[in-house]
Amino acid sequence: MSAAEEVVTEAPAVEAVPKRAMTLGYGTSLVVLAALVIIPLLVKNFIIFQMTMLLIYALAVLALNILTGGSGQFSLGQSAFYAVGAYTSAILMEHAGMNYALTLPIAGIICFGFGFLFGQPALRLSGVYLALATFALATAMPQLLKLGYFEHWTGGVQGLVVTKPDAPFGLPMSQDMWLYYFTLVVSIGIYIASVNLLRSRSGRAFMAIRDNEIAASAMGVDVALYKTLAFGVSAGITGVAGGLGAIAVQFVAPDGYTIQLAISLFLGMVVGGVGWLPGSIVGSAFIIFVPNIAEGISKGLSGAVFGVLLFLVIFLVPHGARQVAIVAQQLIAKLKKN
Amino acid sequence: MLSTLRIAAISAAVVAVAATSTTAFAQKKYDTGATDTEIKVGNIMPYSGPASAYGVIGKTEEAYFKMINDQGGINGRKINFVSYDDAYSPPKAVEQVRKLVESDEVLFVFNPLGTPSNTAIQKYLNSKKVPQLFVATGATKWNDPKNFPWTMGWQPSYQSEAQIYAKWLLKEKPDAKVAILYQNDDFGKDYLKGTKDGFGAKASSAIIMEESYEVSEPSIDGHIVKIKAANPDVLLIYTTPKFGAQTIKKTAELGWKPLQIITNVSASVGSVMQPAGFDNAQGVLSAAYAKDGADPQWNDDPGMKKWIAFLDKYMPGADKTDGSIVYGYGAAQTLAKVLEMCGDDLTRANVMKQAASLKDFAPDTLLPGVKINTSPTDFAPIAQLQMQRFKGQKWELFGDIISGDVPSQ
Amino acid sequence: MELFANQVLAGIATGAIYACMALAVVMIYQAIDHLNFAQGEMAMFSTFISWQLMQWGVPYWGAFVLTVAFSFAAGIAIERLLFKPLAKAPVLTNVAGFIALYAIINSVAGLIWDFTIKQYPTPFGSSPFLGSQLISTHQAGMIGITLLMLVLLFFFFRFTRVGLAMRAAASLPESARLVGINTSWMIALGWGMAAAIGSIAGMMIAPVVFLEPNMMLGVLIYGFAAAVLGGLSSPFGAVVGGFLVGVFENLVGTYIPGVGNELKLPIALALIVTVLVVKPAGLFGRAIVKRV
């Protein structure tokens, strides 16, 4: 409680969105990385599976973060891009017999194109209007997926069952563990690329648009290009996450990609901290584990318990995990001074 | 062991006695999840999310096993029923089922709900050789012992029910012009397919319209207006309860009187026919395999009396008109029967073996004459239905009990 | 041609549902400048309250008035307790708060009243209206109530001090404070009014779609779409938007061959997005000029 009060009184301590791409320090990064590498060696396969899903949703939350935290555009339609990525991977693996690893870049590229195109009409919209347009996309996607015309490829309402890959080169590890490390490598790659993107010229252009679109355009930023680009990049990363999700869950069906998923990803972003990329994994943990905790407290009221827990989080830390990180940083700085 | 024999003897089926007594004298054998004192049963249900209406099935089963435990358990072992929420989302279903199998170490997974969720976990459970017993969905694919020997259905399949309607129409109204209203998902599409199969060669001439709707639509009045314009004389209503009630109400408001046949899923007196208006529902047809909790004709039925006594004690305040409670009770009772037959051989293989040797078992809540039969080649426990017509404030059964055990084409 | 006329009429009847909800959406938007995702659930909960009152023997109109009053008070209470503390938090955090509220109300209603559908009475009867079986007297009554609320809202926002103050507080909070408006209470009042209008919408909608905890799930999507189409700053636009969406959707489902029926919602939404691209503030909304 005291931490939150402190932040409220020192209002400027937390800006609405960070002015530049903030990341973890080297030390913290190494600790997190070490934990992510070592823990799977010590736990059951089921927990490895959960950790795989944790990374996959973290990627999807990160993608939304690039869009919202980076370029200031809001999307409730991420589940649509996730679905396209998942179906792309599933269809390529099951119908074309393609290697699972190769399907991911294809899923990413297709979703990038899809997002880029969707970004065109979205250019004219902002705030609630953009929210509605993306919301429309999320509602439409499950209906498109079960459309009779695509049934031959998508499996229609029944969905598609996907085969889980074995570890290559005869490595002595379970399918789950292999998939986890595979996902980990992909996630780290995308994370580093995203941080670099936000620190690059394009990233600064995104943030200039986010902070003041008119001023940015006056300074010579091609607003239309960068806004659609942000949509494309975000959709592309979400697509890769969707592809990984399809492989991990071994099944794709329209019911898996409803607006519920888009809302979860949005909540993940808020809890992790808008615009703070490392927070994505915290947000992802929230959307995976908090429903389980809520259910453990009361089955009949699991929805209500989840809502109450969510309220608690946003009351204590309205800026999400980012706020916790900032407070921690300030504390450490103080300790060092003394 | 004596008590095992006695319970088995009370249940009429002779074959069941034979099965129990052979295992009863065998050595105690356990797989993960079973001990001398406990049987751990796993389950997933949509307690939250869009399908949360079905969560009551899980709650009923939990209450039923509590009753069993209060009565001393099954063969001296208590049932530990571990049920998790999957929110009707396939990825969450996979996560929860893996938790049940790998972390809670249950003996098997019982009555998981929903076609998408069950499809998502079927491959995993079969590769782990963990029974996926009595799934709570009516898709035809659960009766596939050759490819999925660890998966078994429970209720009659949607397709066989739809075939019964089609065959009834062929016989009673051979010149009918049929319109079908169905929900655009696995459930509705299964009924659609079953109907077409049932009509066979006459399908294209008999069915003049197939109209689908989405669950997200608040009201389906527009669809009814459109169907009426095509002027069919039979309307097949393959919807979930809310939309079933809307359809019956709207056709009446339009002053339109086609012959209406409604899916068993939405035939509840209390939660469909009454909200739709009893006057509007007169003459509607359906088929049933279970008794209706809100139907006064079962007031003196010994099975339903037991059901009511169970509700009063273990689920006070429960909504008796909710068909899901009847469903959960019947499924849980079937499981109790199987576990009783397993005796002291509580291995996963034996659970499947016993589940596949149910002979003429009749849970309290099934219609008189409807019995559960399974065999190593028949993984569809309930395959019988009886046609019924709505009259006054209740369903009137008519005709013979029809076996829907048609091999799916 | 007859089918066309029928579908338009049926569309208007369904559109009345959307229009009702859209009014509540516009109301909250006027007060807090964003959309409340829990609005549908609040309306559903209010409707259950009125149903419970009637079960206890309160006559229809008595339950109606009590429910509207209760909803007004509950709306204010929710704002004071849950959202006032979040006033300084970022907008997106507030949206997360709406989602939390949604989850809580839905789950609690399910626990108290179960998920089976319930019949809900109508004061207008459900016989054919003016000889047309496509619009029942209930639907005509619902349209009447919607229009009445619209007129009242129009006068409220245009001619009363409180209404003007509320608009000022929502659009330019700083300036409103400078002229002595208590903006914080204006927001609470907006919540109360939106909840009250929502409860009326719920009680009008329930006889058509039946009462159950998930009854507003679909309605809210359409209500948002209608409000955005008509223009979020205009109650009149919201009502017109509601009817347009209802008719749109029926015509798409009937006349677009092949995919029309399966994709009527996506197509209707795509049309709305197209309208927004051309007129970003909606059909009847005021365009806001942005300045640096």
Textual characterization of the structure:
The complex is a heterotrimer of chains A (338), B (409) and C (292). With 338 residues, chain A is mainly α. Chain A is built from 15 helices and 2 strands. Helix content of chain A is 74%, strand content 1%. Chain A has a two-stranded antiparallel sheet. Chain B folds into 2 domains: 38-156 and 296-378, Response regulator (Rossmann fold, 3-Layer(aba) Sandwich); 159-288 and 388-403, Rossmann fold (3-Layer(aba) Sandwich). Chain B is 42% helix and 17% strand. In chain B, the strands form 4 sheets. Chain B has a 4-stranded parallel sheet with strand order 3-2-4-5, with helices on both faces. In chain B, helix 14 crosses helix 15 (348-355). Chain C is an all-alpha fold and 292 residues long. Chain C has a two-stranded antiparallel ribbon with strand order 1-2. Chain C starts with a helix and ends in a 14-residue tail after the last helix. Chains in contact: A-B, A-C, B-C. At the A-C interface, helix 6, helix 10, helix 12 and helix 14 of A face helix 4, helix 9 and helix 11 of C.
Brief write-up:
The complex is a heterotrimer of chains A (338), B (409) and C (292). Chain B has 409 residues and is of the alpha/beta class. Chain B contains 15 helices and 13 strands.
Task: Please give the count of helices of chain C.
Answer: 11
Lateral strand order in the biggest sheet of chain C: 1-2
Secondary structure class of chain B reads: alpha/beta
Q: How would you classify the helix and strand content of chain C by structural class?
A: mainly alpha
Oligomer: heterotrimer
Q: Tell me the name of the CATH class of the largest domain in chain B.
A: Alpha Beta
Largest sheet of chain C: 2 strands, antiparallel
Which stretches of chain C are poorly predicted, pLDDT < 50 over at least 5 residues? none
Using the coordinates shown, work out and report the CATH topology of the largest domain in chain B: Rossmann fold
Please report the distance between the alpha carbons of the first and last residues of chain B: 45 Å
Shape of chain C: globular
Largest sheet of chain B: 4 strands, parallel
| Largest interface: chains, residues each | A-C, 53 and 47 residues
| Mean pLDDT rating of chain C | 87
Tell me, what's the shape of chain B?
A: globular
Number of strands of chain B: 13
Provide the CATH architecture of the largest domain in chain B: 3-Layer(aba) Sandwich
Total domains of chain B, how many? 2
What's the rounded overall pLDDT mean of chain B? 87
